[in-house]
Amino acid sequence: MATPSSSSVENEPPSCPECKSRNLVKDACASEDMLVCHNCGHIVEAGSLCNQLPSLQSSGMEGMRQTGAGGGSSRAEMAKYGWPSNYEHQRKTRLISQINKICNHLGVKNHDKSIVLDSLKHSFMVDLKGLNDTGIAAALVFLLASDQSLDSLRKINEVVGLKEKQLRKLVKKIKSLPPFSDTVITPKKSTVQDVVIDYIDKYSIEMDTETRKECISTASSMFELLLNTDLQKSLEKCLASHGSSLLSAILLLSVDHISKAKLHNDKLYKEFSEKLDAKSRSVSTNSSSVRRRLLHLAKKIPSLSDDHELKMLTITKYLSTILQNKAYLTAEKRVSDHEKKEEMLAREKEEEAAGQSQSLPCQPSPREQSRFLYASASSWVDDDDDSLSDLDDDDIEQYLATTDEIEDKKKMMPLD
Protein backbone atom coordinates (compact mmCIF):
# COMPACT_ATOMS: atom_id res chain seq x y z
CA MET A 1 0.00 0.00 0.00
CA ALA A 2 1.43 3.30 -1.07
CA THR A 3 2.21 5.76 1.71
CA PRO A 4 2.33 9.50 1.24
CA SER A 5 5.76 10.95 1.04
CA SER A 6 7.15 12.80 4.03
CA SER A 7 7.22 16.00 2.03
CA SER A 8 3.48 15.79 1.24
CA VAL A 9 2.62 15.17 4.91
CA GLU A 10 4.85 18.02 5.96
CA ASN A 11 3.23 20.36 3.47
CA GLU A 12 -0.32 19.44 4.53
CA PRO A 13 -1.63 22.24 6.80
CA PRO A 14 -3.46 21.38 10.04
CA SER A 15 -7.25 21.76 10.24
CA CYS A 16 -9.44 23.54 12.77
CA PRO A 17 -11.10 21.08 15.19
CA GLU A 18 -14.26 23.21 15.16
CA CYS A 19 -15.02 23.93 11.50
CA LYS A 20 -12.37 21.64 9.89
CA SER A 21 -11.06 24.58 7.93
CA ARG A 22 -7.35 24.58 7.07
CA ASN A 23 -7.26 28.36 7.05
CA LEU A 24 -5.28 28.65 10.29
CA VAL A 25 -3.18 31.64 11.26
CA LYS A 26 -0.23 31.76 13.65
CA ASP A 27 -1.40 33.90 16.58
CA ALA A 28 1.29 36.55 16.81
CA CYS A 29 -0.48 38.17 19.78
CA ALA A 30 -0.21 35.15 22.03
CA SER A 31 2.53 34.71 24.59
CA GLU A 32 2.78 31.01 23.61
CA ASP A 33 2.61 29.24 20.27
CA MET A 34 -1.03 29.16 19.20
CA LEU A 35 -2.99 29.01 15.97
CA VAL A 36 -6.19 30.92 15.25
CA CYS A 37 -8.79 29.75 12.73
CA HIS A 38 -9.32 32.52 10.21
CA ASN A 39 -12.73 31.06 9.36
CA CYS A 40 -14.43 30.74 12.78
CA GLY A 41 -11.99 32.43 15.17
CA HIS A 42 -11.34 29.26 17.20
CA ILE A 43 -7.97 29.22 19.00
CA VAL A 44 -6.02 26.00 18.51
CA GLU A 45 -3.62 25.05 21.27
CA ALA A 46 0.04 24.60 20.39
CA GLY A 47 1.37 21.05 20.30
CA SER A 48 0.44 18.37 17.85
CA LEU A 49 -0.81 20.80 15.22
CA CYS A 50 2.30 22.90 15.42
CA ASN A 51 4.46 19.79 15.13
CA GLN A 52 3.03 19.29 11.66
CA LEU A 53 4.60 22.60 10.68
CA PRO A 54 8.01 22.97 12.31
CA SER A 55 8.48 26.35 10.71
CA LEU A 56 5.54 27.68 12.76
CA GLN A 57 7.00 26.75 16.14
CA SER A 58 8.77 30.04 16.79
CA SER A 59 6.45 32.49 18.51
CA GLY A 60 5.81 36.18 18.16
CA MET A 61 6.25 38.60 15.31
CA GLU A 62 9.99 37.98 15.15
CA GLY A 63 9.49 34.51 13.72
CA MET A 64 7.07 35.86 11.14
CA ARG A 65 9.41 38.63 10.08
CA GLN A 66 12.31 36.27 9.50
CA THR A 67 12.59 34.72 6.10
CA GLY A 68 14.42 31.71 4.85
CA ALA A 69 15.25 28.40 6.51
CA GLY A 70 15.17 28.10 10.30
CA GLY A 71 13.63 31.50 10.81
CA GLY A 72 9.96 30.78 11.28
CA SER A 73 7.28 31.20 8.63
CA SER A 74 8.40 33.04 5.54
CA ARG A 75 5.87 35.11 3.59
CA ALA A 76 6.19 32.64 0.74
CA GLU A 77 5.40 29.70 2.99
CA MET A 78 2.46 31.50 4.59
CA ALA A 79 1.09 32.39 1.17
CA LYS A 80 1.57 28.79 0.07
CA TYR A 81 -1.11 27.66 2.52
CA GLY A 82 -3.23 30.76 2.12
CA TRP A 83 -2.33 32.10 5.57
CA PRO A 84 -2.10 35.91 5.71
CA SER A 85 0.85 37.33 7.57
CA ASN A 86 -1.01 40.53 8.48
CA TYR A 87 -0.59 41.19 12.19
CA GLU A 88 -3.63 43.46 12.32
CA HIS A 89 -5.85 40.82 10.76
CA GLN A 90 -4.63 38.22 13.25
CA ARG A 91 -5.42 40.54 16.12
CA LYS A 92 -8.94 41.11 14.83
CA THR A 93 -9.45 37.37 14.53
CA ARG A 94 -8.26 36.86 18.07
CA LEU A 95 -10.55 39.62 19.38
CA ILE A 96 -13.57 38.03 17.68
CA SER A 97 -12.63 34.70 19.25
CA GLN A 98 -12.32 36.32 22.67
CA ILE A 99 -15.70 38.05 22.25
CA ASN A 100 -17.32 34.74 21.33
CA LYS A 101 -15.79 33.03 24.37
CA ILE A 102 -16.99 35.77 26.74
CA CYS A 103 -20.51 35.70 25.27
CA ASN A 104 -20.65 31.91 25.51
CA HIS A 105 -19.50 32.02 29.12
CA LEU A 106 -22.17 34.60 29.98
CA GLY A 107 -24.80 32.58 28.15
CA VAL A 108 -25.77 35.39 25.80
CA LYS A 109 -26.17 35.35 22.06
CA ASN A 110 -23.03 36.23 20.15
CA HIS A 111 -22.90 39.69 18.69
CA ASP A 112 -23.08 40.26 14.98
CA LYS A 113 -19.51 39.90 13.69
CA SER A 114 -20.11 42.57 11.09
CA ILE A 115 -20.69 45.12 13.88
CA VAL A 116 -17.53 44.00 15.64
CA LEU A 117 -15.47 44.08 12.45
CA ASP A 118 -16.83 47.53 11.68
CA SER A 119 -15.44 48.61 15.03
CA LEU A 120 -12.07 46.96 14.46
CA LYS A 121 -10.93 49.27 11.67
CA HIS A 122 -7.27 50.08 11.07
CA SER A 123 -7.41 53.40 12.91
CA PHE A 124 -9.27 51.72 15.76
CA MET A 125 -6.58 49.06 16.12
CA VAL A 126 -3.77 51.61 15.95
CA ASP A 127 -5.33 53.63 18.77
CA LEU A 128 -5.51 50.49 20.89
CA LYS A 129 -1.99 49.35 20.13
CA GLY A 130 -0.25 47.87 23.13
CA LEU A 131 -3.46 47.40 25.15
CA ASN A 132 -4.67 44.08 26.53
CA ASP A 133 -6.61 42.17 23.87
CA THR A 134 -8.73 40.31 26.42
CA GLY A 135 -9.68 43.62 28.01
CA ILE A 136 -10.52 45.10 24.61
CA ALA A 137 -12.77 42.12 23.84
CA ALA A 138 -14.50 42.48 27.23
CA ALA A 139 -15.02 46.21 26.67
CA LEU A 140 -16.50 45.55 23.21
CA VAL A 141 -18.91 42.98 24.67
CA PHE A 142 -20.01 45.54 27.26
CA LEU A 143 -20.42 48.40 24.75
CA LEU A 144 -22.40 46.25 22.31
CA ALA A 145 -24.68 44.84 25.02
CA SER A 146 -28.17 46.11 25.79
CA ASP A 147 -27.45 46.14 29.51
CA GLN A 148 -24.65 48.57 30.29
CA SER A 149 -25.14 48.69 34.03
CA LEU A 150 -22.37 48.40 36.61
CA ASP A 151 -23.61 44.91 37.48
CA SER A 152 -23.20 43.83 33.85
CA LEU A 153 -19.65 45.23 33.78
CA ARG A 154 -18.75 43.26 36.89
CA LYS A 155 -20.13 40.03 35.43
CA ILE A 156 -18.01 40.47 32.31
CA ASN A 157 -15.01 41.36 34.45
CA GLU A 158 -15.40 38.11 36.41
CA VAL A 159 -15.07 36.17 33.17
CA VAL A 160 -11.91 37.87 31.93
CA GLY A 161 -10.30 38.30 35.35
CA LEU A 162 -9.10 41.89 34.95
CA LYS A 163 -9.14 44.63 37.53
CA GLU A 164 -12.42 46.55 37.42
CA LYS A 165 -10.58 49.86 37.20
CA GLN A 166 -8.57 48.61 34.22
CA LEU A 167 -11.70 47.45 32.39
CA ARG A 168 -13.43 50.77 33.05
CA LYS A 169 -10.51 52.65 31.53
CA LEU A 170 -10.66 50.45 28.43
CA VAL A 171 -14.40 51.03 28.09
CA LYS A 172 -13.89 54.79 28.39
CA LYS A 173 -11.04 54.70 25.86
CA ILE A 174 -12.96 52.64 23.28
CA LYS A 175 -16.13 54.69 23.77
CA SER A 176 -14.22 57.80 22.72
CA LEU A 177 -13.17 56.21 19.40
CA PRO A 178 -15.16 55.86 16.19
CA PRO A 179 -17.57 54.24 15.54
CA PHE A 180 -18.71 54.42 19.18
CA SER A 181 -18.19 58.18 19.29
CA ASP A 182 -20.50 58.60 16.26
CA THR A 183 -24.12 59.45 17.01
CA VAL A 184 -25.37 57.02 14.39
CA ILE A 185 -23.93 53.91 16.02
CA THR A 186 -24.10 55.04 19.63
CA PRO A 187 -24.66 52.02 21.87
CA LYS A 188 -27.51 51.94 24.33
CA LYS A 189 -27.02 54.24 27.26
CA SER A 190 -28.37 52.32 30.21
CA THR A 191 -30.83 49.78 31.51
CA VAL A 192 -34.57 50.22 31.13
CA GLN A 193 -34.96 50.96 34.83
CA ASP A 194 -32.28 53.65 34.73
CA VAL A 195 -33.93 55.38 31.77
CA VAL A 196 -37.40 55.25 33.33
CA ILE A 197 -36.08 56.63 36.63
CA ASP A 198 -34.21 59.39 34.79
CA TYR A 199 -37.36 60.54 33.03
CA ILE A 200 -39.52 60.32 36.16
CA ASP A 201 -37.08 62.72 37.76
CA LYS A 202 -36.63 64.84 34.62
CA TYR A 203 -40.34 65.52 34.21
CA SER A 204 -40.96 65.74 37.99
CA ILE A 205 -43.79 63.24 37.77
CA GLU A 206 -45.59 63.12 41.12
CA MET A 207 -46.38 59.67 42.48
CA ASP A 208 -46.14 57.84 45.77
CA THR A 209 -43.35 55.36 46.50
CA GLU A 210 -45.39 52.22 45.80
CA THR A 211 -46.72 53.55 42.50
CA ARG A 212 -43.21 54.61 41.50
CA LYS A 213 -41.84 51.12 42.17
CA GLU A 214 -44.70 49.53 40.27
CA CYS A 215 -44.20 51.88 37.33
CA ILE A 216 -40.50 51.05 37.10
CA SER A 217 -41.10 47.32 37.49
CA THR A 218 -43.89 47.27 34.90
CA ALA A 219 -41.90 49.36 32.46
CA SER A 220 -38.92 47.04 32.80
CA SER A 221 -41.06 43.95 32.24
CA MET A 222 -42.60 45.43 29.12
CA PHE A 223 -39.36 46.71 27.64
CA GLU A 224 -37.65 43.37 28.23
CA LEU A 225 -40.08 41.90 25.70
CA LEU A 226 -39.29 44.46 23.04
CA LEU A 227 -36.41 45.46 20.82
CA ASN A 228 -35.38 48.70 22.46
CA THR A 229 -33.55 50.11 19.46
CA ASP A 230 -34.14 53.74 20.34
CA LEU A 231 -35.25 53.73 23.94
CA GLN A 232 -34.35 57.23 25.05
CA LYS A 233 -35.64 59.03 21.98
CA SER A 234 -38.96 57.17 21.97
CA LEU A 235 -39.57 57.65 25.67
CA GLU A 236 -38.72 61.34 25.50
CA LYS A 237 -41.07 61.81 22.55
CA CYS A 238 -43.91 60.02 24.34
CA LEU A 239 -43.50 61.98 27.54
CA ALA A 240 -43.29 65.26 25.66
CA SER A 241 -46.42 64.52 23.61
CA HIS A 242 -48.67 62.94 26.20
CA GLY A 243 -48.17 64.92 29.36
CA SER A 244 -46.98 63.69 32.72
CA SER A 245 -48.67 60.28 32.83
CA LEU A 246 -45.68 57.97 32.93
CA LEU A 247 -47.62 54.75 32.47
CA SER A 248 -49.42 56.19 29.46
CA ALA A 249 -46.03 56.98 27.98
CA ILE A 250 -44.81 53.47 28.75
CA LEU A 251 -47.83 51.95 27.04
CA LEU A 252 -47.43 54.22 24.07
CA LEU A 253 -43.75 53.39 23.81
CA SER A 254 -44.31 49.66 24.12
CA VAL A 255 -46.79 49.70 21.26
CA ASP A 256 -44.50 51.99 19.29
CA HIS A 257 -41.66 49.49 19.56
CA ILE A 258 -43.81 46.67 18.23
CA SER A 259 -44.42 48.74 15.14
CA LYS A 260 -40.74 48.79 14.19
CA ALA A 261 -41.55 46.30 11.43
CA LYS A 262 -42.20 48.10 8.16
CA LEU A 263 -44.28 45.25 6.72
CA HIS A 264 -48.05 45.63 6.51
CA ASN A 265 -50.64 43.21 7.79
CA ASP A 266 -54.09 44.74 8.12
CA LYS A 267 -55.51 41.62 9.73
CA LEU A 268 -53.08 41.71 12.65
CA TYR A 269 -53.48 45.47 13.01
CA LYS A 270 -57.25 45.09 13.19
CA GLU A 271 -56.89 42.21 15.65
CA PHE A 272 -54.63 44.28 17.87
CA SER A 273 -57.07 47.20 17.87
CA GLU A 274 -60.00 44.93 18.70
CA LYS A 275 -58.13 43.23 21.52
CA LEU A 276 -57.00 46.56 22.89
CA ASP A 277 -60.58 47.78 22.73
CA ALA A 278 -61.94 44.61 24.34
CA LYS A 279 -59.37 44.62 27.12
CA SER A 280 -59.99 48.28 27.79
CA ARG A 281 -63.75 47.88 27.88
CA SER A 282 -63.43 45.06 30.42
CA VAL A 283 -62.02 47.60 32.87
CA SER A 284 -64.23 49.92 34.89
CA THR A 285 -65.42 53.07 33.15
CA ASN A 286 -63.20 55.06 35.50
CA SER A 287 -60.33 54.38 33.10
CA SER A 288 -62.28 55.55 30.05
CA SER A 289 -59.93 58.46 29.43
CA VAL A 290 -56.97 56.08 29.43
CA ARG A 291 -58.83 53.73 27.09
CA ARG A 292 -59.59 56.55 24.68
CA ARG A 293 -55.96 57.60 24.66
CA LEU A 294 -54.80 54.06 23.91
CA LEU A 295 -57.38 53.55 21.19
CA HIS A 296 -56.40 56.86 19.65
CA LEU A 297 -52.82 55.67 19.57
CA ALA A 298 -53.78 52.25 18.20
CA LYS A 299 -55.20 53.90 15.09
CA LYS A 300 -51.78 55.38 14.36
CA ILE A 301 -49.86 52.12 14.75
CA PRO A 302 -48.48 50.74 11.48
CA SER A 303 -49.62 47.23 10.68
CA LEU A 304 -47.63 44.44 12.28
CA SER A 305 -45.74 41.68 10.54
CA ASP A 306 -46.38 37.98 11.17
CA ASP A 307 -43.06 37.78 13.01
CA HIS A 308 -44.38 40.20 15.62
CA GLU A 309 -47.63 38.37 16.38
CA LEU A 310 -46.29 36.90 19.62
CA LYS A 311 -45.14 40.32 20.78
CA MET A 312 -48.51 41.76 19.92
CA LEU A 313 -50.31 39.17 22.03
CA THR A 314 -47.88 39.62 24.90
CA ILE A 315 -48.26 43.37 24.94
CA THR A 316 -52.05 43.04 24.78
CA LYS A 317 -51.80 40.95 27.94
CA TYR A 318 -49.66 43.57 29.62
CA LEU A 319 -52.03 46.33 28.57
CA SER A 320 -54.94 44.58 30.26
CA THR A 321 -52.84 43.95 33.37
CA ILE A 322 -51.65 47.51 33.70
CA LEU A 323 -55.07 49.00 33.06
CA GLN A 324 -56.33 47.12 36.12
CA ASN A 325 -53.48 47.77 38.53
CA LYS A 326 -53.21 50.49 41.10
CA ALA A 327 -50.72 52.46 39.06
CA TYR A 328 -53.70 54.06 37.38
CA LEU A 329 -54.78 55.60 40.66
CA THR A 330 -54.32 59.00 39.07
CA ALA A 331 -57.26 58.32 36.74
CA GLU A 332 -59.28 56.82 39.59
CA LYS A 333 -58.47 59.80 41.81
CA ARG A 334 -59.58 62.18 39.08
CA VAL A 335 -62.97 60.44 38.88
CA SER A 336 -63.23 60.29 42.67
CA ASP A 337 -62.54 64.02 42.93
CA HIS A 338 -65.21 64.67 40.31
CA GLU A 339 -67.75 62.60 42.25
CA LYS A 340 -66.86 64.42 45.48
CA LYS A 341 -67.33 67.73 43.71
CA GLU A 342 -70.77 66.66 42.47
CA GLU A 343 -71.76 65.54 45.97
CA MET A 344 -70.60 68.87 47.38
CA LEU A 345 -72.64 70.78 44.79
CA ALA A 346 -75.72 68.67 45.57
CA ARG A 347 -75.27 69.30 49.30
CA GLU A 348 -74.95 73.03 48.68
CA LYS A 349 -78.17 72.99 46.65
CA GLU A 350 -79.97 71.18 49.47
CA GLU A 351 -78.67 73.71 51.98
CA GLU A 352 -79.79 76.57 49.74
CA ALA A 353 -83.22 74.99 49.40
CA ALA A 354 -83.41 74.52 53.17
CA GLY A 355 -82.42 78.16 53.67
CA GLN A 356 -85.15 79.33 51.32
CA SER A 357 -87.79 77.25 53.11
CA GLN A 358 -86.74 78.76 56.45
CA SER A 359 -87.13 82.27 55.05
CA LEU A 360 -90.80 81.59 54.12
CA PRO A 361 -93.66 82.42 56.64
CA CYS A 362 -93.68 79.85 59.40
CA GLN A 363 -96.29 77.17 58.71
CA PRO A 364 -97.88 75.34 61.67
CA SER A 365 -97.00 71.73 61.98
CA PRO A 366 -99.70 69.06 61.50
CA ARG A 367 -99.84 68.46 65.25
CA GLU A 368 -100.33 72.16 65.93
CA GLN A 369 -103.06 72.28 63.31
CA SER A 370 -104.73 69.31 64.97
CA ARG A 371 -104.60 70.97 68.39
CA PHE A 372 -106.14 74.07 66.88
CA LEU A 373 -108.94 72.03 65.33
CA TYR A 374 -109.50 70.21 68.61
CA ALA A 375 -109.68 73.47 70.51
CA SER A 376 -112.07 74.88 67.94
CA ALA A 377 -114.23 71.81 68.14
CA SER A 378 -114.22 71.98 71.94
CA SER A 379 -115.39 75.58 71.84
CA TRP A 380 -118.35 74.48 69.79
CA VAL A 381 -119.36 71.90 72.38
CA ASP A 382 -121.97 72.82 74.99
CA ASP A 383 -120.63 73.24 78.52
CA ASP A 384 -123.30 70.90 79.80
CA ASP A 385 -122.38 68.27 77.23
CA ASP A 386 -119.97 65.89 78.94
CA SER A 387 -119.29 63.78 75.87
CA LEU A 388 -115.68 64.98 75.91
CA SER A 389 -115.24 65.76 79.57
CA ASP A 390 -113.95 62.30 80.44
CA LEU A 391 -110.94 62.56 78.10
CA ASP A 392 -107.57 62.69 79.86
CA ASP A 393 -104.24 63.90 78.47
CA ASP A 394 -103.28 60.48 77.06
CA ASP A 395 -106.58 60.26 75.28
CA ILE A 396 -106.01 63.72 73.85
CA GLU A 397 -102.52 62.79 72.56
CA GLN A 398 -103.88 59.65 70.98
CA TYR A 399 -106.70 61.68 69.55
CA LEU A 400 -104.24 64.07 67.96
CA ALA A 401 -102.07 61.28 66.48
CA THR A 402 -103.11 61.54 62.86
CA THR A 403 -105.11 63.86 60.66
CA ASP A 404 -107.44 61.07 59.59
CA GLU A 405 -108.33 60.28 63.17
CA ILE A 406 -108.99 63.95 63.83
CA GLU A 407 -111.31 64.16 60.87
CA ASP A 408 -113.19 61.09 62.09
CA LYS A 409 -113.51 62.57 65.57
CA LYS A 410 -114.74 65.85 64.11
CA LYS A 411 -117.51 64.03 62.31
CA MET A 412 -118.55 62.40 65.57
CA MET A 413 -118.59 65.68 67.55
CA PRO A 414 -121.94 67.45 68.12
CA LEU A 415 -121.76 70.81 66.41
CA ASP A 416 -125.18 72.27 67.22
UniProtKB/TrEMBL annotation:
Keywords noted in UniProt: Metal-binding, Zinc, Zinc-finger
Segment forming the signal sequence: none
Alphabetical list of InterPro entries matching this protein: Znf_TFIIB
GO MF terms held by the record: zinc ion binding
Annotated region described as Disordered, given as residue ranges: 334-368
Domain TFIIB-type as annotated: residue spans: 12-45
Extent of Basic and acidic residues compositional bias: 334-352
Transmembrane portions of the chain: none
Presence of keyword Zinc-finger: yes
Protein name, UniProt field: TFIIB-type domain-containing protein
Species in which this protein is naturally found: Amphimedon queenslandica (Sponge)
